[in-house]
Amino acid sequence: MGVELWVSRDRDRDGAGGRGPGAGEERTEERGSGFEEGDRAGGQGPGAREERIEDRGSRFEDLEPQDTASANSPIINSSPAAAPASPSARGPRPPAPAEGRPPSALDPGPSALSWDQLRIAVQTCTACSLHETRTQTVFGIGDPNSSLMVIGEAPGADEDRQGEPFVGRAGQLLNVMLEAIGFAREQVYIANIIKCRPPGNRDPHIEETAACQPYLHRQIALLQPRLILSVGRISAHNLLGTEEAVGRLRGRVHRFDPGDIPLIVTYHPAYLLRRPQEKAKAWQDLQAAYRVLNDLMD
């Protein structure tokens, strides 16, 4: 079906189409039939195996919803800053506390914890009322050295049962979105704004997001991603401290603080399952992410 990725059907509706990253626009627009042919080859991320990215595409249409699951503007830097150094030039990370030791009253909080200690702290957290109704916490999953971090909103029923973010149909859709820019799910790090499911999949309350914020900020500090992909309204609002609609936050490269990390906002996969006509815009956001990562790796 050619390059339209998963948006060709939507392009007929609203005239929106994907444009490829940087100087390789024409090559990106030739991405396509790999999803239809069942291509599952793992990418190495932008700039490494570009020829594989050209094969990504239209299998997204196979995930058109049968039930619901819970811009053409140029990308502009809203706060220009120098690109981060390459991984080898970043220098050593600060030493973490000893692995495997549960946090104690002497620990100054999540900001001093290692990955293992942070996971234990989240598993045992009672900082808000959500611990009373959760089946288990949903810490995060993926490569702790990835250049790309995906941050969603809150766990749903499937995530609460499995303890992993983005499972079910929304998770399948996210996997296809990541593959379209050359990443297998295992090659990125995926987390949520909060670690416990709100009852009935309601929006998290302010005190709940505030209780989880130190955990998420520590995950970001440990990971040191080159780019954050914020998916969904709740994610964008909490990461950027704004109430603007996702549609207005798209199309720009924001900066996440602390860390001055480039951040791109796009629609949540569950929203795209309900509103497939918005996939063309999500494809533009993915291409923007691809461009940013390529630029940072040059």
What topology does this entry show?
Elements lengths: L7 H7 L10 H4 L21 H4 L22 E2 L37 H9 L17 E2 L5 E5 L4 H6 L5 H13 L8 E4 L13 H18 L3 E5 L1 H8 L5 H4 L2 E5 L4 E6 L2 H6 L4 H19 L1
Parallel strand pairs: 1-6, 3-4, 3-5, 5-7
Antiparallel strand pairs: 2-4, 6-7
> pLDDT average, as an integer?
76
Shape descriptor reads: globular
The count of helical stretches stands at 11
Strand arrangement across the biggest beta sheet: 1-6-7-5-3-4-2
Largest sheet: 7 strands, mixed
Residue share in helix: 25-40%
CATH architecture annotation name: 3-Layer(aba) Sandwich
Query: How many domains in all?
Result: 1
Describe the structure.
By secondary structure, this protein is of the alpha/beta class. It has a single domain (67-80, 96-297), classed as Uracil-DNA Glycosylase, subunit E. 33% of the residues lie in helices and 10% in strands. The chain has helices at 8-14, 25-28, 50-53, 115-123, 157-162, 168-180, 206-223, 233-240, 246-249, 269-274, 279-297, and strands at residues 76-77, 141-142, 148-152, 189-192, 227-231, 252-256, 261-266. Strands 1-6-7-5-3-4-2 form a seven-stranded mixed β-sheet, sandwiched between helices. A hairpin with a 4-residue loop joins strand 6 and strand 7. The radius of gyration is 19 Å and the shape is globular. The two termini are 31 Å apart. Residues 1-5, 8-55 and 63-107 have low confidence and may be disordered.
Provide key terms for this protein.
alpha/beta; disordered N terminus; Uracil-DNA Glycosylase, subunit E; globular; 11 helices; 10% strand; 298 residues; seven-stranded mixed beta sheet
